[in-house]
Design goal:
heterodimer; A: alpha/beta; Rossmann fold; 3 helices; B: Nucleotidyltransferase, domain 5; 2 domains; five-stranded mixed sheet; 10 strands; globular
Chain lengths: 141, 322
């Protein structure tokens, strides 16, 4: 399904509705070009899952792991990866252990990451608006 | 002397620092080209790369200082935050060397390390002061009360300032990471050509996600030829927006805390426009702005050491203790 949002708050709310359908072990890939709202989307999901502190971009740090309400939430970013080698997967794997994991720039991890439960794609519409498609999950949002 | 080891992110680094803060040797893997000599050919972001490099980097530092492990009094190592696998490589190496020589070990927080780059010779800064820590992964305003403690006044709520520079550089076709390249290009542009707004968020926090998107929209309106012609103006205007946001927050924090002295550390502290905009501020030496182990050894002078052999149980931590 595809939705249009016109503010970061709407993007966060949409992510929150997806988050409500997820449980530990689920992986969600979040794709879209620079500035399309990926981190905003993940922040919305984190908030809905009970994460309270700042949810910031993990581009440099590669992974963040947060405590949510009864579940841990992982936020990963493969922007700086060329691919994911076996050794690199060894570093990433703990982030998928008993978490709901959101992966930005998942393209480098194709074939290595666990199969996603939901695939999210964000695109710029006209200024300030985003087209967000969510596939694979329970789409009755 | 103190041996420092840093493996929290991309760099494998080791340094030797004297008890009074003089840097006797500082080796960073990317600069020393050690990776070409000892590492693999495929670039990867994995702890395995640190594993390949950590021993050569320590050896290189000892050689540069004309020292051996017998001259080392304590070993300081980054404990977090960072990728746990990467951190564990440095931590295990430090534990092994410290244990073999019955030395104490000092676990150091990477962010505290950046602040401690200011305590190195020559001309070390003494607390208290207000510190802006801005890098690819972090943007923090810190109230530094003494060598071992601080309070966090503000942080980014989305992207770090260094990330904003690097991603802006990518949008301008300068490659990645291109923060330093953007800085060079901006010198040839008109910083008032474009008005890029930076979101104002409550308190002393920062937000750099919106300015990145504003740059994206500006580049989308231009043809390839126009973009080439306006690239320096875009770079200069974008840089001005980020620097202005940083400087405004620093000034507000200084007014609130009554800080007499201001310091800037981290990779973004190497930005020429930021340094020019804060002429009174003490900036970390250029070679200690980006990740290095001299700053970790420096921090190791002020953190209580864990005596032999109790540190064997120490674990790394992934997230910033904020």
């Amino acid at each position: 399904m595809e939705s249009e949002t016109s503010s970061p708050e709407e993007t966060e709310a949409l992510a929150g509705r997806l988050a409500a359908t997820l449980r530990a072990g689920d992986v969600v890939t979040v794709s879209g070009e620079l500035g399309s709202g990926k981190t905003t989307f993940v922040r919305g999901a984190c908030r809905a899952l009970g994460v309270s502190g700042a949810v910031t971009s993990p581009t440099y740090t590669i992974g963040h792991r947060y405590h949510g309400d009864g579940v841990d939430v992982a936020h990963l970013d493969l922007y700086r990866f060329q691919g994911v080698s076996a050794a690199e997967w060894g570093d990433l794997e703990p982030y998928f252990d008993e978490t709901i994991a959101f992966v930005e720039w998942p393209e480098a991890g194709e074939g290595v990451l666990p199969a996603p439960r939901a695939v999210v794609r964000l695109r710029h519409a006209d200024e300030g608006r985003r087209l967000i498609s969510i596939h694979g999950a329970d789409t009755r949002l | 002397m103190i041996l420092g080891i840093e493996t929290s992110c991309d760099e494998t680094a080791s340094a030797l620092v004297s008890a009074d803060g003089e840097v006797l040797a500082s080796v960073v893997s990317s600069q020393a080209d050690l990776h070409a000599r000892f590492g693999g050919v495929v670039p990867e972001i994995a702890s395995r790369r640190h594993l390949e490099l950590v021993t050569p980097v320590v050896r290189e530092a000892l050689a540069e200082a004309g020292a051996t492990l017998a001259d080392v009094d304590r070993i300081a190592v980054t404990q977090g935050p960072g990728l746990v696998g990467a951190l564990l490589v440095g931590l295990a190496a430090a534990k092994g060397m410290a244990w073999a020589r019955r030395l104490p070990l000092v676990p150091v927080d990477h962010l505290r390390g950046h602040v401690a780059s200011l305590y190195l010779q020559p001309d070390p800064l003494e607390p208290p002061f207000l510190c802006l820590l801005a890098s690819g992964g972090h943007t923090l305003l810190l109230d530094i009360r003494d060598h071992a403690s601080h309070a966090i006044l503000g942080t980014t709520i989305d992207d770090a300032a260094g990330e904003a520079f690097d991603k802006g550089a990518r949008l301008l076709g300068l490659g990645y990471p291109g923060g330093a390249e953007l800085d060079r290009l901006a010198a040839h542009g008109d910083p008032t050509a474009y008005e890029f707004p930076v979101a104002r968020v409550p308190g002393l926090d920062f937000s750099f996600s919106g300015v990145k998107t504003a740059l994206l929209y500006a580049t989308k309106e231009l043809s390839e030829d126009e973009l080439a012609a306006r690239r320096a103006d875009l770079a200069a205007s974008y840089q001005r927006a980020i620097v202005r946001a940083l400087v405004e927050r620093v000034s507000e924090a200084a007014a609130q805390t009554g800080a007499k002295r201001i310091a800037i550390v981290g990779g973004v502290a190497a930005n020429s426009a930021l340094r020019a905009a804060l002429p009174e501020a003490k900036a970390a030496a250029l070679e200690y702005c980006t990740d290095n182990a001299a700053m970790i050894a420096s921090a190791g002078r002020y953190v209580e050491a864990v005596p032999y052999p109790r540190y064997l149980a120490l674990d790394a931590y992934a997230s910033a203790e904020v």
